[in-house]
Amino acid sequence: MLGEASRERAAARSSAWRSVRPWATVAALALASTPRMALGVDFEIDGDVFAQGYDVAGPWGDVLLGRKRFGAVLGFAAYNLQGEARPLEADYSVALRMRVDTDFGYRAGETDYADDPTLYVPGMAYAPVDLMYGYVEGRDLGGGWFGFRVGRQYVTDVLGWWSFDGALLRLTTPFYVQAEVYGGLEQRGGLPLSSPRFERPGVWRGSHGDLEGDLAADFPSYQYAAPAPAVGFAVESAGPNWIHGRFDYRRVWSTGAAFTRQFPAHEGGGYPQVEGLRLSSERLGYAGSAFLPEIGGAKGGFVYDVGTGVVSRAYGALEFHVGEPVTLGAEVDYFVPTFDLDSIWNWFTHDGITTTLARVALRPVEHLDVTVSGGARLWMAEGDPAAYRGADSTSIAPDLVTDVGARYAWGTGQVRVHGGVETGFGEVAQNRGRRGGADVTVAQELVPDHVWLAAGTSVYGWSDPLRTHRDATSFGYVVAPELAPADFVRARVEWEHDLNRLVGQRFRLLGSLSFRAEVSP
Prior knowledge:
The protein has 2 helices and 26 strands. The protein is mostly beta strands.
């Protein structure tokens, strides 16, 4: 069985390389051909290769996770495909980035139910391949009015990071207004070359290709992966750089089947499912900011979850410059967790968390920056947690939050000091405990433009009145030398050691190699 598992891992790694190799070949051929091209096209290729190993021990000393991971990221871009760039004339480009993560530490039972059902994890892969983005983009079409992007792409706005496969059209007017409309398929786990990191939380989805027969019903929490149509639009300001505002709307549907219960129906009825097109998420939001160098700035925004009918986030912040070395600020942030509408977590009650902070930033002497902030974090819950009453009242429990940071920089290095405490109040039922500590990091250039050394140490402690046996103080340190033998490549090694009384000692060794090359005619 072990020999068969080894062959499966080797086949998975080979399959992953076969998936990436065509793209690597295309990038290499493009770069090799650039000296013979005289069209003004600029090429760029970059990437990272990294490996790490670590063990995570449980409270009783057993190794829960023993991992040996290898990964690679490859990026390729070509700019000015139309030739020499000219203002307000059409400009075309191509961008691509892929990632492969291989784990040599998996035990056979984690990916093979027949080997060990107690270890099996549906959807776990030895070498998942993730197409992070890959698109063709056109800008300044029609005298600067229009633009487009086709392929897998990111959207970053007040609604959060998001990724989809499809098309985006952009209209830029001379009236300081820009609009976008887009549509396609949301990137979801279990689909080809995809990752689940951009889905709404609360649902565990993936490919059921390795679940044969009735085995799929043994994991009713593991939902089927299926295409998720999505549409959205945005309107934002495009003009003066001291003020900016953007309104966003996005709607995503789920398709395919999904289990609706954790247990089968009576008399062999199987696991109930829902099928067809249904709403997954619908949200809208606005973010605005303004900044005047001599006075200060302000920003604010909100996100409204249409599917659940709640404001899931609202925030605002003010900042004032009091003389050149002092800046004063205050902010309020309100957050309520929301989930995919297929998630059972929508059935449970959950209330918002409000954080209010005041801060001051100053430079008492040259090269030294200091920031101090403090405030409260308010936890809200329906009813009284101490008396386990119903939703006839709302309880609010506060935490005190403090944070202090300082940075001193010189020509070839810097040192940072950071510390903070968050602590609750009241009786055991309302008090969420305490956590706090401090860390120090130092970075120094040893050989100009070629060799650096960074190191850091930290001490953090925590306590929970409801679980006093889990109180502990953790100590850790990191040493990270870095070498750049040439302008286009950089290597880094990190050694990390952490220890506390609950899990003993933990070690992690990480090595990475980054490269970047640009070719212009």
